[in-house]
Amino acid sequence: MVLIIKKKRANLYFQRNYQLNTKMFYTYTLMISDIVIKLFETQLYVFELKYRVLENLSLALGEKDTYRDGILHKESGKYSV
Question: What is the mean pLDDT of residues 21-49?
Answer without folding.
Answer: 85
